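Structural biology now treats backbone shape like a language. To illustrate, our science desk offers a sequence and the tokens encoding its fold:
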Amino acid sequence: MPTRRAPPKPQRRTGVRAAAAEATREAILRAATKVFARYGYVGATVEKISRAARSVDRMIYYYFGSKEGLFIAVLERLYADMDEAEAALTLDETQPLEALVALIRFVLGYYRAHPEFITLLNSENLHRGEHISKSLKARQYSSRAIDMTARLLAAGQAQGLVRPGLAARDVYLMIAAAGYFHMANRYTLSAFLGERVDTPAAVEAWEHHVIDSTLRSIRTNPPPA
């Protein structure tokens, strides 16, 4: 009489396991972003992060190696998200000045819409960039923004609208600095000036000033003040 074979044990599909692992990793990253933003690098313990992620400490070590590894991953994600948002911009290079205005509005608006980005960069600057300097990805996230700015400047120069000799890096840093400083220091600036700098009217006025200042600094023949 032939021997009957036991039915094979059901196995979880690799795709299901991979999806569950990615969901766990994403949950930890989201929770870590909030915890690091609230407590800073030192105050954000692994225990607080795993509790916020509804996970366990060992999963943080499994996916990220250490708290520092997780912090670096959080910073990389923040840069990557802004890089992806910039990639989605549709800028008409045949109208370089108008396109540059759109880029300025995007940068300033992105900082306002993502205060955790500012908070975490402030935290990392307090550590003199100790952690992000260990990232193998950080530098690549600036390339798209600089290239985009370079193309707009080149198009403007070709049309005689933009003066030659400008470094795209410097122009982009000027725009980013204006947005970053205003957002990062909005509370102390409001106290110092005796007026809110984050009201809709004040934000609109600052954005207009940044646009006007940037265009005047790059144009071949800026209009009179």
